[in-house]
Amino acid sequence: MRIPLAFRLVCIASALAVMAPAAHATWPEQGAKVGDGAGLQYSTVICADPAGGVLVSWVSLSDTEFATYVTRYDSGGNLAAGWPTSGVRVGDGGVSPQPLFYLWRDHSIASDGAGGAFVLWPAFSGFRVAHVTANGQLDSNWPAGGLRPAPEPITIWSATILADGAGGVFVAWSDARDGWRHVRVHRLQVDGSPYPGWPTDGVLTKTGFNEQDKPVLSLDGSGGVWVGWSDDGTAAASRAQSLSVQTYLRVLQHVTAAGVVDPLVPASGIGVGGFDVYPEFGMVGDESGGVFVLWDGSDQPHARAGSFVQRLGPTGTPSSGWPALGNLYSTSGNSLHGQWSAADGLGGVLTAWNVYVPGAGHEDVRVQRIRPDATIPPGWDPLGVRVGAALANGDLPLTVTDGSGGAMVVWSDSSLTPGETDLFAQRVDAGGSLWPISGSDRLAVCTAPGFQGGSRLEPAGPGSAYVSWVDTRSDQGDVYVRKISIGESPTATMLVRFDAEPIEAGIRVSWEFSGPSPFSEVELFRASNATGPWTPVTAAIRREAGVSVAEDHSIEAGNPWWYRLEALSPDGERMAFGPIVVEAHPRLQDGLTAVSPNPSRGPVTIQFALTAPTEVRLSILDLAGREIANLAEGRHERGSYQLNWDGRAKHDRVPAGIYFVRYSTPERITTRRLAIAR
């Protein structure tokens, strides 16, 4: 049986190369207002749910309350079954009201992989984390009002969460229990309990006389996590000597799946880049156990200014081909300090920024894709691909993968109506080209009166994304959400089938392209979670009635596995399809597998399994070795079997005592002791 995360990608092949962009049929063109709209709503954060929908959290402030909420929509724009129209109130408090375009990190949301979500917010008594189930209920396993990462009365200065890819959540925070702000990280299971092996109060990432704040998280793909923070202690000496402003150093540490600081990484952490006045930065996993680090500023040793990216390998050293102080990919502009960059799905990273155009009086929005080897892919402008209209005034861009090696980009723009701000989107394909949009070169996400900003972006499948934002069209602030689609994805035009199903001792993966494959090479990859790392599947690929089929027998049974395709075009560009996920059947254990309950006061269930067809006889013996009941006899095919014994010999109930279950095949005889109590 497939787990709830499973989905099947079946697209109808089309002769059209592109389609005009459109929101989902039932999503309002100007977005759906979440909650009941009472008071001021702001600070929206979102995450996709595995069924194709979206979860949205926000803060509500009115004369009667100050609280944080969450709600869930399906992919068609309908409120999910069981969820109240006003949303689920996770607890008191929230981030303080800020300017409309301020982007919050201390308020965050993470999917539990089953339709629910974890929500982090700054409650009145300090940061709290709550779990809301898929049916819109606060999880009763968690403390009422949310779980506090650090016990009272310790002050928590900042915090964030990240889904662990296995149904739980990583929580990182900065507290000053020992006199200095130090960052800790914890991994919690879906019921709120610590992950096995993890310390009850989390892992201390670094000690010393320094201030650590604004933690950032990125999965390592192996059950552990990269933790980053801004650190002013390391830079203190240099700052005192030559600088008159506060500076920070980006520091990273790796915590393994076992809940310990990685012994291969320096205990003091890894400093990335130089000293900068901006404490914020972003991290994105590289799908190979390492991490990309992105930031804005200037590194003091070389006085370079602009936007930077660095790739660190699993041990924290710069990856091959990457400069020691990072790769300067833009010499001007604002990428929001790299906080909202994203993986491209092919081991690289996507990032977007806005840049002022001298003499033009406006700002451009640009997006760039950087490959694992630090190079820019063919077709992508080395200065970044420009999106939006020629006279646009773009700001605060966000980007996520388009599901096929390209990017979805959303930004704010004040050029359409004087004194107002609207939201627009565009898609850049894997080759660096803009997708055609009927009548425009950008998709209007929301052009309602007033201001739209503080947006969030979440991928929603090939060529689609969810956008949420704060909106003043009707009052001082409401939160809206919408699903957008731009173009028909390569998956829809090329791939008509991509499926995975469990088989005995493995998983069968099948796929089919429309007509002759347009690719020179197609390779199947597997991962133990949705974010990688991805490993090539070495199974032979065969053709069955035009469908490519591979049987993967090298997986661990009983666990979920993710699969994706990577295809190489004739011009050398790689494209990704998927991922899809499926749970492998437990491997058959040949023989008598269970007798329960034991002891029994009533019926007894007996289970056995066969790895090959054979003759089977299953019977009950008394203490003297006499057969008193025959439950099965004859040839049985490969598979699992379950039989029930009602505790009778012929027509009478057997008395209390000791009996034996005997399982016989030509290859073996197994006897299991059974106690009957009356």
UniProtKB/TrEMBL annotation:
Domain FlgD/Vpr Ig-like span(s) in chain numbering: 602-661
Keywords noted in UniProt: Signal
Superkingdom of origin: Bacteria
Record's signal peptide: 1-25
A Pfam short name: FlgD_ig
Protein name, UniProt field: T9SS type A sorting domain-containing protein
Protein species of origin: Eiseniibacteriota bacterium
